[in-house]
Amino acid sequence: MTTLPLVFDAPKRALPPRHLADLAPGERRAAVSELGLPGFRADQLARHYFGRLTADVDVMTDLPAAAREQLGALLPPLVTPVVEQACDDGATRKTLWRGHDGTRAESVLMGYPDRATVCVSSQAGCGMACPFCATGQGGLQRNLSTAEIVEQVRQAAAAARDGALGEPTRLSNVVFMGMGEPLANYQRVVAAVRRITEPAPSGLGISARGVTVSTVGLVPAIDKLAAEGLAVTLAVSLHTPDDELRDTLVPVNNRWKVSEVLAAARRYAQATGRRVSIEYALIRDVNDHPWRADLLGKLLRQQVGTKRVHVNLIPLNPTPGSEWDASPRHVQEEFVAGVRAAGVACTVRDTRGREIAAACGQLAASEA
């Protein structure tokens, strides 16, 4: 099996123009002053963008017309929808975005009875080279800017509010599980999380408890995130408990082994008080064996602690032409039982969007 080399540093490609969402509150006032306007205009602009979820200066009628024209420089268009698809009776909506330089990224808005969730991308492509992932096989194009990430969330929040999922609802959850390895774009992802969780007008006001940041296991970055004081949920894409197979399924395992990743997960849970989610894509005849369920439960109990961890099984959404396939239902149920036998919580993720290529990277690959 051929895998791509790991890429931790994105290619040197120009990020989009400076945007309001790239800036912390103090920086916004400085940027507005550079335009020759009083600093309080920054708060008015932020109130529209983060509070009213609009980036159209023409509707900001509490601002003088001349000021609106100038302030538009801080709201440049960043991501344009290329393809939008819906399924699950409108409860799942996937968008393929085009950046200023033609790079593409995806987000998925999902409605549930008790919440609305958006899954966002943090990079255009991905350098982690996991062979069962369409994004990983496409390679990394570049990091997304803070504002490009926030824009995915703002537009999803506006769509949910305006009834895109059926009934108007409030966006409550954001998961960094789209294209890219979030912790390989660390500074911009952390800044985006701050914009997402800070109360309006500083940010979108989504609870940190509703935000999940995933990683394939970049151990130093996990420890760094634990010290940020953000208390978001950490999701570790483990996919198998044994190093021999994980070296192939998740090539970053060649740098940080399972035991090191789980130790970092334990430290994160201890520092933040948040239970860590272990993501496990169940692949037929590859990682779905009963002994792996037993080993997974044992390792998590011993190395992380049953109260600090939860296993999230993901039925694989296979990519077209792939050799990988989802495990049968009875195998899935046996795997769940094996993990639970160790006293570790284990549930199966609700599978959405198979008919609209909603697995990470599928839509971008199909439109390439």
Explain this structure.
The active site is at 106 (proton acceptor), 360 (s-methylcysteine intermediate). Its cofactor is [4Fe-4S] cluster. Belongs to the radical SAM superfamily. RlmN family. This is Probable dual-specificity RNA methyltransferase RlmN. It is an enzyme of class 2 (transferase). The chain has helices spanning 25-34, 40-51, 65-71, 134-138, 146-161, 186-197, 219-226, 243-249, 258-272, 290-303, 329-340, 362-367, and strands at residues 80-87, 92-98, 104-112, 115-119, 123-125, 140-143, 173-176, 211-215, 233-237, 276-282, 309-315, 345-348. It folds into two domains: 20-74, Orthogonal Bundle (DNA polymerase, domain 1), CATH 1.10.150; 80-367, TIM Barrel, CATH 3.20.20.70. The strands form two sheets. It has a ten-stranded mixed β-sheet with strand order 1-2-3-4-7-8-9-10-11-12, with helices on one face. A two-stranded antiparallel ribbon has the order 5-6. The chain has twelve helices and twelve strands. The protein is elongated, with a radius of gyration of 21 Å. The model has no long low-confidence stretch (mean pLDDT 92). The longest helix has 16 residues, at 146-161. Helix 5 (146-161) runs parallel beside helix 6 (186-197) and helix 10 runs parallel beside helix 11 (329-340). It is of the alpha/beta class.
Question: Structural class, from helix and strand content?
Answer: alpha/beta
Number of helices: 12
CATH level 3 topology of the largest domain: TIM Barrel
CATH superfamily of the largest domain: Aldolase class I
Question: Which CATH architecture of the largest domain is right?
Answer: Alpha-Beta Barrel
- Anisotropy-based shape: elongated
Text of the CATH class of the largest domain:
Alpha Beta
Q: What percentage of amino acids are in beta strands?
A: 15-25%
Count of spatially separate domains:
2
In whole angstroms, the N-to-C terminal distance is: 24 Å
* Order of H and E elements: HHHEEEEEHEHEHEHEHHEHEHEH
Estimate percent helicity.
Answer: 25-40%
Average pLDDT for all residues: 92
Low-confidence stretches: none
Spatial sequence of strands, sheet with the most strands: 1-2-3-4-7-8-9-10-11-12
Binding site for [4Fe-4S] cluster: 126, 130, 133
Function: Specifically methylates position 2 of adenine 2503 in 23S rRNA and position 2 of adenine 37 in tRNAs.
Organism: Pseudonocardia bannensis
Binding site for S-adenosyl-L-methionine: 180-181, 214, 237-239, 317
